[in-house]
Amino acid sequence: MTGSEAAPVAPEPAQAPEPAPAPEPPLAAEAVVPEAAPEPAPQPERPAAVDGAEQAEAPAVDESLAQPVPSAEETAPDAEPDALAEQPLGEFLPVEGSVPATSHLAPTPPHPVVLPAGDQASEPVAQQQAVITVPGPRTAASVPGPAAPEEAPASDPVELVQSADDLDTRAADQEDRQDRQDRLNDANDLNEPHPADELTGPTEQDQPGPHARLDPHARQDPHAPQPLQGPQDPHARQDPHDAHEPHDAHEPHDAYDPHDPQETSTAPVAEARQPTGPAAPAYDDAEREAVLKVMRERRDVRNGFRSDPIPHEVLLRVLEAAHTAPSVGHSQPWDFVVIRSAETRRTMHELALRQREAYAKSLPKGRAKQFKELKIEAILDTPVNIVVTADPTRGGRHTLGRHTQPQMAPYSSALAVENLWLAARAEGLGVGWVSFFDEREMVRALGLPEHLEVVAYLCVGYVDEFPEEPELMQAGWSRRRPLSWVVHEETYGRRALPGEEPHDLLAETVAQIRPLDAKALGEAWERQKRMTKPAGALGMLEIISAQLSGLSRQCPPPIPEPAAVAIFAGDHGVHAQGVTPWPQEVTGQMVANFLGGGAVCNAFANQVGAEVCVVDVGVTAELPSTPGLLPRKVRPGTADMTTGPAMTREEAKQAIEVGIETARDLVAAGNKVLLTGEMGIANTTASAALIAVFTGADPAEVTGRGTGINDETLARKTEVVRRAIDLHQPDPADPIGVLAAIGGLEHAAIVGLLLGGASLRTPVILDGVSAGAAALVARAIAPEVLAACIAGHRSAEPGHVSALNKLGLRPLVDLDLRLGEGTGALLALPLVQSTARAMHEVATFDSAGVTEK
Ligand SMILES: Cc1cc2ncn([C@H]3O[C@H](COP(=O)(O)O)[C@@H](O)[C@H]3O)c2cc1C
Ligand SMILES: O=C(O)c1cccnc1
């Protein structure tokens, strides 16, 4: 690790007005010695100043960053990059005059990324699944010897060259353009600025960027100085209106020509009738633009209604538009009840209020706070309310299309609602759809015929203005999902926009991971210095707040709330080797417990206001569908790693993708921090094996007692780990291969959660030993993933200590926990939130009139 990497995370000298993002090593040295740091903070120390034997209590930090002035030895090109990171915990002493730092802000790429051959081909999921016999549970006593692998490993791996040209990033690009069209606010959109925009910045042209660093060909010398930060001026890149518009292929066309092969599907349809004569004409540009405009600018309005009456002819036009909607079998199942009576509206308002309260009670605290601020209806603020119903009996029993899909009747009425909504927007009328009703209660309250279904309750009126973005987005409740996430080519999972090659979810995610933003980091250090407290007095929390700033590109950073813990559950074939006294079915039973709210993680999540999201990525038992459970089983448990690979490479990758998609969903749903959690009986065995491979430690050093095992079982577990590694000889340069050989499905999913979180610039708080193991895998795939990672706690498992050391992550909480489920991460959440809140709320010396020393 080099000084230039370390520099951006350390506070710049008091004399320097601007942070020096990637200075020469001598400057870097200056930059990290703050003028005012009188007290030795609880911070890491250079090894030179350490007497290891006496430092057992010191905090766990990779000093390669804590020590920002690299010695000649450390910067020597042939030095092992992680050698310094492998110092055991507790070997670091506070250094006078420096602020604690942690090397995860300056990760070193350990290996080129290797993905399985054919990864880019994205075969349909069903075809990718290999049939693997999962051995049934055995007793602890029956420990078979190693056997031949059950399966040959997948075909030769190919190296993924992660340059912007090679990865399919055009989808995101098209999204950017779509955003421009939609006049969306970039800050609230999940779209990243196009990677190419970033790569053309002046600093990244001169220095190897994150992609170059991942490109094995570009990284001849892994020890060469590597920049941590992006371009000097991130704001220059945040405006997607800037430059880089050579993507005409996706710009709106002047006239659509169905015979232009560029514009049509390339797959011929055998029976298609040969076209004769010209196709029906499209709208002209202005007409089309008007249609698209009304869709873009339609809003679900709750705020800013006016009491102005709606003229009859205006309301008539709106209802006529609704009545022209498509409907199943042309059954036109809708009716519109126009309500103006204040009394009826008051009754409906009462009903909605009650439902609102019930919903608020069901929310995690972090969400409930946000919900309290939201206006969810405008029943009393609007002159007209319209109830849209569906009559499921209209048209008789033979209504075309309703035979197999009875829900087509309410769907049809929903289309009438959309027509109404668009027509209202064109009239300058706002519409808000209120869904806080018990449908049957509403039917009775309104005296509607009992056979009707209520599809929508709409509040309609003139408004002061139409918000530019959905009100829920403006309130931070949710974020917009890019189109490229939801368009699949031919089969689900082959994501591609029309005219694009299908993009690989993992490669796309990795390509979007960026280092911390140097400008925001610099601002964070500057702000920490001006806050009314002695410099460095918040110790490690100052570093976390700077990390949050660099990650979000904002100073102060957003408060990481609401939070969600993703608990990935999976089973392990290695359970058959007697590595744990607990039966395998406990995994599924604990999943039920999580969903019922009875586990430790539930209590902790309630305490800190986090949502618990449970994901079945590979539980052996079939789990009944339950609210709160995401059914994402890649396979029912892994195979026994001592007799063959735990899973195929494709399965490992699928499980990673489950994690990526979980991160996307949770972030799009408005969560501002993610926490890792897991459940899987025997998973500490897989964790130990992963950690041994990535740290190079002997299995005896990193294998622990998990749920609590005796010496005999521990000895057996250690030998199991050793045998599995001997059998597979996993190559840490091939992280997916390692996962497939000796990992768990929940480990793979956590890898995806970390990569997904990092790609969305969302912090992820790591829990215990499985998260540590997964972070090692994730770092081997994308070193800069660590920019998003915060170590929540230090577990009692010895392997966790080794993993954190290797990662250079310093845990926030150290309470000898050895549970998992996300419990340690949940306990750390308030610390992370506190540091961000301090950045927002603590006065500066100037503003508070406090004299500086
Ligand atoms: C009742 C119960 C609840 C748990 N919650 C988390 N774990 C934790 O223990 C398991 C790993 O330990 P080992 O490798 O020794 O089996 C994982 O499921 C982990 O989440 C639990 C374990 C049990 C038994
Ligand atoms: O610390 C952990 O993460 C842990 C320890 C024991 C069992 N399961 C998880």
From TrEMBL:
InterPro entries: BluB, Nict_dMeBzImd_PRibTrfase, Nict_dMeBzImd_PRibTrfase_bact, Nict_dMeBzImd_PRibTrfase_N, Nict_dMeBzImd_PRibTrfase_sf, Nitroreductase, Nitroreductase-like. It catalyses: 5,6-dimethylbenzimidazole + nicotinate beta-D-ribonucleotide = alpha-ribazole 5'-phosphate + nicotinate + H(+). The keyword Heme does not apply. Residues 10-26 have a biased composition (Pro residues). Its EC number is 2.4.2.21. Residues 27-36, 140-159 have a biased composition (Low complexity). One of its GO terms (molecular function) is nicotinate-nucleotide-dimethylbenzimidazole phosphoribosyltransferase activity. Residues 1-286 are annotated as: Disordered. Residues 167-197, 212-222, 234-262 have a biased composition (Basic and acidic residues). Pathway: Nucleoside biosynthesis; alpha-ribazole biosynthesis; alpha-ribazole from 5,6-dimethylbenzimidazole: step 1/2. Residues 296-462 form the Nitroreductase domain. The keyword Transferase applies. Keywords: Cobalamin biosynthesis, Glycosyltransferase, Transferase. Belongs to the CobT family. This is Nicotinate-nucleotide--dimethylbenzimidazole phosphoribosyltransferase. The gene is cobT.
